[in-house]
Amino acid sequence: MNLNINDTFLKELPSDPINENSRRQVLRACYSYVSPRKTKAPQLIHVAKSVANLLGISEEETQSQEFLKVFTGNQVLPNTTPYAMCYGGHQFGHWAGQLGDGRAINLGEVLHNNKQWAIQLKGAGETPYSRTADGLAVLRSSIREYLCSEAMHYLGVPTTRALSLSLSGDEVMRDMLYDGNAAYEKGAIVCRVAPSFLRFGSFEIFSARQDPKTLKTLVDYTLRNFYPNCELNKQGYIQFFREVSTRTLDMIIEWQRVGFVHGVMNTDNMSILGLTIDYGPYGWLEGYDKRWTPNTTDTEHKRYQFGNQSNIGLWNLLKLANALYPLIEEAEPLEEILANYKTTFAAKYLGMMKAKLGLTTQNTDDIKLITDLETVLAKTETDMTIFFRNLAKVSKTLEVPVKDELSFLSEVMDAFYKPEELKGEVLFFWKDWMKRYVARLQEETATDEVRKQVMDTINPKYVLRNYMAQIAIDAADKYDYSVVGELFTVLEKPYNEQPEAQKWFAKRPEWARTKVGCSMLSCSS
User: Which of 24, 206, 276, 475 is most deeply packed, by most CB within 10 A?
Assistant: First the structure.
C-alpha cells in the first residue's frame, strides 16, 4: 500500500515528552506515542470497500498480507508514529478528569483526493490512558461498532466510518454485565476512520487543568484544519462554537429521525465535528418509547434516554462553552448560541417529523398532530421503524370507520406488538389520529404514489436492531461470518425495498426481548 501520509495532528500539536507506556496523568500534551500490541493470529473478517476507496486502498490491496498486518496492529505504516490522544470528559453528568484513548491507537492521517482521514485501531492494546483496563476489545462489541458505523453512514447520519473488522487471535477477559461473571472472549480489532477523532473532552481537559496555552494551540489547530472559515481570534472562536452547536444539533435530529439511541452521550463521546462517535451500548427503538435507553449503567436515571438526547446535546455544549471561555472571556455570545439551540432544535424537529409524515405544506395544527401521534404510539407497543415505513402506504382517500373495526390500520398493523390491545381507549385514539392525518394529507398536492416515494427516502426500512447484531455475533462466535456480510450488504441500502432481505424487516422477536445483547447492554458491549 502506498498511502499519502499527512500527519497534521503530530506536526502541529504538543506531544507527551515521556515515551514510557505506563498509566499516568499526561500534562500539557495532546497525545502520547504508543505502539499497537502485536496479535497472536490475526484474521480479517470484513472490509468496507467504500471506506478503503476513501483512503486510496484498492480492493486487491485489502486482500494483501500487508493490509492484514497494518490494520491489526502488527505492522506500522512507513513514515508514521502511532499515538493515543489525551482528553477528559463529563461522564453521566460528572467530571471524570483525564480519560483519553484507553483502547484506541491512531495509526496516522491519510490525504486522498484532497480529503484528510485519521485512521485508528480500536482494541489494539493498552495506552497511558487505559487506566485499569487492558486496551483490548472483544468480537461482540467490535461487530456492533463495525456494522453500526457503516449503517449510520448509509442512513444519512453524520458518523465516523469503519474500514475493517478483524480477529486478533487472542482471548480477552470480560465481565459483560459487571456482575462478577468474567469469562474469556474472542479478541477483535476495528479500524475506525474519520476526518478527526477530536471530542468535546479534548478541549475540556486543558481548560480544567488551567492550561490556556495548550487549549489555544488545540483550538487553532482545529480551526485551521476543520473550520477554515473561522479566524484565529475571539470572533473566530465564537463562530467555531456556533458551528459545532449547529453540527451537534443536526446530528441529533438525524438520530431522532431514524430512532437511534446513542446510550453514552458523555462529553468524551461527542465529536467536535458533529459525527456520531464511539458505538457502545447503542440501540434503535423497537417499541416507540421516548424513555428507553439501551445502557444498563443508565437504567435508574435514564439520563441518555431517546427523548432526552437533544437536552443532553445542549448540556454537553454548555460544557464545551465553559472549556472555550478562557479564550473568549465573554459569556453573552456563548449564552446566545446555547439559547438559539433550543429554538432551532424545536423548528428542525418539527420539520423532520413533518417529513416523516409526508407533509410539505404549512398548517398550524401540525405540532399537535405530531404530539398526539407520539402519545398514541406509546399507548400500545408499536414498532417505530415499521410504523413510519408503512405509513407511507396510507392513502389520502382512506375512510376511518365509525364502528370498532381495525381495517383502517391495515397498512400499519405489522407495527403493533400486541394488536389485541387495539380496543377501547387505544382504538379511540388511533381512530381520531388517523382521521385527522388523512384529512391533513388531503391538503397536500402530491399524489399518494409521489408522497410514498419521498417518505421512503426519509423513513428507512432496515436499521441495525440489536437482535440483528446479536444474530451476527452468535454466528461469528462459531466462526460463521456470513451474517456479518449479509447485514452489511442490507444496511448499505436501508431505504431500498430489497425483497430478498425482507426477513430483516420485522419486529424484535420475543426471544430477544430479555436476551443479553438484544435489550440492554453494558458499556463493554
Answer: 206
